[in-house]
Amino acid sequence: MEPLEVSHGAVFSERGNLYTISRCPGVRVYGERLVNSGGTEYREWNPARSKLSAYLKCGGRSFPFRDDSKVLYLGAASGTTSSHVSDICRNGKVFCVEFAPRSFRDLVKTTERRDNMIPILGDATKPEEYAFVVENVDIVYADVAQKRQADILIDNMERYCARYGMVSIKARSEDVTADPDEVFESSVRRIKERGCRVLEVVKLEPYEKAHAMIVVEKLRTAYCVAMKDKKFLMVHNTKRNGWEMPGGKIESGESIEDAAKRECLEESGYEVTVVAKRNIGYCDVCACVLGEKVSDGEMESELFSELPDDLSFDTDEYKDVIAWARTCVNP
Ligand code: SAM
Question: Which pLDDT does position 285 carry in this prediction?
Fold first, then answer.
């Protein structure tokens, strides 16, 4: 079994077949082959049954799923693909939305043995409906095979503050008479109009006729709460005439942690070590241990025990994130 490079070691390949490590050894979800190798059980991931597997087989290179990712999966059906996502995001969560009661019954059976999968009987066109159970997520994956596939993806990414999205576009669901390439192009246009970057468009033939996977990134920001003992670092922004946490835009492909470290170094001159991260909706926050000051930094910086009065932003969130960072850094 060779780890597939683009999957960051989460998907394996042997003689052209793809596999994930079973989170639930001995249990088949859709009759897939189970293979034991070196004491580990692998589940074969059939590209003819799963569009995410087909995407990898067709050369897809943007694979945002990690061991601890939180995923909102729209159109889970009976759980074929989402069970592999549950293998991959072993220490994360997979919120699985399905609106057909019959498929949902099978989905519930699949999720009973996998405690990182949460089945939700809901309509993906109404993201608010499942807000009582779904948290902010890292990735929205949409395979709903109905009209407005791109908009359904983006509506859910916005509602659940996701950085990445993947949508399987079934051309015939948008317009049975249109040329599939035109449908893919108009989906790409729509995604860009809604303020997201398109990382990749991969057609899924020969596994799925007239289907393409579109991978999407929404540009986000990150900031640091950098602690030294009980004090936290802030920078003074002369343009906004106030104190704020060091941070800024996450660049495409950059990890949240790397963006927070880079922005802190640029703005304050301090190095930091990230110990935890948290998605607070409009941006990501990293709890950090403050390191050495290694350069001047673009802004004046200071350590505070309490929030100063002259803040750049009229916000209550700092109180929460400082309390959270204190517990992360000094548990
Ligand atoms: N993703 C599944 C897999 O690979 O295992 C297959 C999904 S199948 C192509 C599409 C599913 O989306 C169907 O089960 C359908 O009932 C569901 N669906 C379609 N529109 C939906 C909506 N608005 N909300 C929730 N589920 C929806």
Answer: 97
Out of 43, 50, 125, 146, mutate this one to test ligand 1's pocket (max ligand atoms within 8 Å of CB): namely 146
Give the model confidence (pLDDT) of 169-199 as tens digits. 999 999 999 999 999 999 999 999 998 999 9
Q: Give the Cα separation of 319 and 93 in Å (integer).
A: 27
- Out of 218, 244, 276, pick the residue that ends a domain: 218
User: What CATH number is given to the structural domain containing 179?
Assistant: 3.40.50.150
Same domain, 150 and 279: no
SS3 282: coil
- Determine the Cα–Cα distance for residues 80 and 77; give it in Å rounded to an integer: 7
Ligand 1 in reach of 47 Cβ (< 6 A): no
Cα 131 to middle of ligand 1, angstroms: 19
With CA atoms as reference, report the closest residue to 14 among 42, 40, 39, 47.
Answer: 42
> Which pLDDT tens digit goes with each residue over 227-253?
999 999 999 999 999 999 999 999 988
| Residues 213, 157 within the same domain | yes
Q: For ligand 1, say whether the CB of 106 is within 6 Å of any of its atoms.
A: no
The tens digit of pLDDT for each residue in 4-39 reads 999 999 999 999 999 999 999 999 999 999 999 999
Q: Write down which residue in 163, 184, 218 finishes a domain.
A: 218
Q: Residue 239 corresponds to which amino acid?
A: K
Compute the distance from residue 269 Cα to the ligand 1 centre, in Å. Answer: 49
Looking at residue 21, what DSSP letter applies?
Answer: E
- Give yes or no for residue 144 having a pLDDT over 80: yes
Based on the domain organization, do 107 and 246 belong to the same domain? no
Ligand 1 mean position, distance from CA 106 (Å): 13
